[in-house]
Amino acid sequence: MTSLSASPQQSSSADQVLREWQRLAMQRRLYSVLGVLLVLAGLVGSMWFADENNAGHFVERLPHLFDFLSWLIPSDWNDVWRALFDIASPQDNGTEQFNFPLGRVYLWADFYLPEYFYLMLVTINVALVSTIVGFIGGLGFCFIVARNYSPSNWLRIPIKRVMELFRAFPEIVIAGMFAAIISIGPVAAIIAIGIHCIGALTKLFYEVVENADMRPDEGLKAVGANWFERVRFGGLPQVLPDFLSYALLRLEINVRASTIIGAVGAVGIGQELKLSISRGFGAKTLALVLLLFVTIFIVDQFSAWLRRRLVGEQAFLKQGLGT
Amino acid sequence: MTDATLSAAASYEERYPQVFRQPFWQRFGPAITVIGLALYLVYAFVFFDVGTVIRSGHWERAGLFLSDWISWNATVEFRTAGGTVTPRYPKFSPLGDDPHPDWVTANADGTTTIEMVGKDNSVTMSATDAYVTKAGETGHVKLGGDTPVIVGNAPAWLAPNDDGDLVADFGFTGQILVENDRVKINKRFLGWPNFFFDTDSPFFGKSAGEDISLIAAGPDLVAGEPNWRLAFDNFWNNAEWQHGDIIVKLLQTLVMAFLGTLLGALVAFPLGFLAARNITRNSALNWTLKRLFDFLRSVDMLIWALFFTRAFGPGPLAGSAAVFLTEAGTLGKIYSEGLENIDDKPREGIASTGAGEVLVQRYGVIPQVLPIMLSQTLYQWESNTRGATIIGAVGAGGIGLKLWEAMRTNDNWANVFYMVLLVLAVVFIFDSISNALRSRLIGRQN
């Protein structure tokens, strides 16, 4: 090239590029504006719909938003501690609002577990057991479902579909079904959360397996390892930290799920909280919220700490993927 | 073992001591963890008394409920009082007020034949006798005494129950119960009865072709209202299936998830920037906001839902507010952690051109994080659609409450299945939309 000065041909092609770029920029801007408008329309529409379908309306109820503070704030703040640890209150007038000592779980002699701690233990146990069930199920199914390890497509595709069904099936329907069969209680909750957890963890696990390094597997194939040995020595060591990290994330989700299922299906602390809020028992509600908050906070922090040790900082970029 | 291999082993041991002398935890940790989990499961088994629960469960109900999902049951009594056979259909049954089902025939000789499956599985009765036929074999039962009496040979499948009444079981199809003065029929039909029109509708009891031609060209059934509008109204307000109510409730659930996630994202976006320690260099503010996110997340959707149900009354507003607060915390945490992991070079580049603070964020930060943020918001949206179903059951409105109530009555499993199918369809559609959007977003990033 002899000179950088624009020859007529270059100028026209530069013009063309400029025009093309402007066209693309306009198009992009148009799409952005349209997208934002669409979301805004959806937002306004759903706000109107939600307000229209609610028992009380937003504007008229807004001044009363903090009304609950009037019943929530106890007349004596010490009652919160008394409710938490099942100690008799001087305000006890025989009503359910102040019958704190009722429901103590005596372990031996005079040593007792306060009612709320016991209920929290039930809720945590439900969450833990269903996470373990989900982990075992996920571990068992993920290598069959993962494309790179699957022994056969005839197994892979049906199991994958069943797992999708497990994941999408509403938990309360499973809980309700089993409540009708084996009576309402923690076992029905475990089955419901566990089934959902198997589906969710299988999905997360097999995605990890499909991204695994296949060189160890090739080495194992070369020495004639069978399928179980390939999974055990080629696949599992690379994916186990990720699996454990996802299982811990799932535990955080399951603690919440078991509280909610509990509120619906009369298990653990959820039901007590629902009763206490709907009847307006200030001290009891505060004690329960405090206990639940601290427990969930501890579980979250513990799981975050363990996950950081297992897979490092990147564990936190996956936070949102735990569904 | 020869000296050569021994020395080779020794040299390996010397070169890779970490393989041969692992620390205690590395060596026994996995085994200890597995044993610990096994012990915990044993404890949980005892704690929840799983054995007793499983043993005392009514497992026979499971098959019944599952068959209720896709079939329905008609119970009809044929009484012999007054010397004639009088059928008694239950009120409000799916058969309608004045049923003449084709499986009940009044014969010319005054007897009545009720077919279970064809003539070979049926009962033919008069006021004094009943002939129960199963698979071609007939048992003759004399009615009118204190208990029904089998005359002649007694088929093995016609056995008296605890009350002395005779029972013939036809499996899924149902059963025939012969008492001294009546015959009770339980007959099960595959399908959902009256899915389109309930028994009060003028379109009830007609074939699909008749209904379509009536809607398309028939004379107005109600003066002044076109037939198609009447048909739609009858369908929408179908008393048995409640299509209208269910669709509105489903929409409420979707709105709860959408509104909550979107508002949560709108609030979390600016707060995420303020909470990220590499963007806002104010550790007090970072710390406060992060603890706020933890607080919102830890208080949990359930507690928010219960509080807002008290404040706003039951309905999607309470649900939306609950999803919103939880989501503001979750997304705030995700956003701020995403922001803390960005590459700082584009920001430095933009800042070196003399751009202001806002422009640095707009061109140096947002292009890096926006696809990830949007994709994670979509994930949350999906998960909240499921979560909103459950939240609904505690009173925050939507399909959850309707599902739970339908299940508690224990006799409307077909309705439950209908709602489950709708929920599954909606979840599937939303998953597909969000997957498509997400793969485009992530794809554009590369």
- Largest β sheet strand count, sense and barrel closure of chain B: 6 strands, antiparallel
Q: Assembly type of the shown chains?
A: heterodimer
Number of domains of chain A: 2
Question: N-to-C terminal Cα separation of chain B, in Å?
Answer: 57 Å
Q: What is the CATH C-level name of the largest domain in chain A? A: Mainly Alpha
Beta-strand percentage range of chain B: 5-15%
Strand content of chain A: under 5%
Separation of termini of chain A?
A: 58 Å
Explain what you see:
- The complex is a heterodimer of chains A (323) and B (446).
- Chain A contains twelve helices and two strands; from the N terminus they run H-H-H-H-E-E-H-H-H-H-H-H-H-H.
- With 323 residues, chain A is mainly alpha-helical.
- Chain A has a two-stranded antiparallel sheet with strand order 1-2.
- Chain B is α+β, with helices and mostly antiparallel strands and 446 residues long.
- Chain B has 14 helices and twelve strands.
- In chain B, the strands form two sheets. A six-stranded antiparallel beta sheet of chain B has the order 2-1-12-11-10-9.
- Chains A and B meet through helix 1, helix 5, helix 7, helix 8 and helix 10 of A and helix 3, helix 4, helix 5, helix 8 and helix 9 of B.
Quick description:
Chain A is mostly helical.
Structure keywords:
heterodimer, A: 323 residues, mainly alpha, MetI-like fold, 2 domains, two-stranded antiparallel sheet, 2 strands, 73% helix, disordered C terminus, B: 446 residues, alpha+beta, 3 domains, 6-stranded antiparallel β-sheet, 14 helices, 12 strands, 58% helix, extended
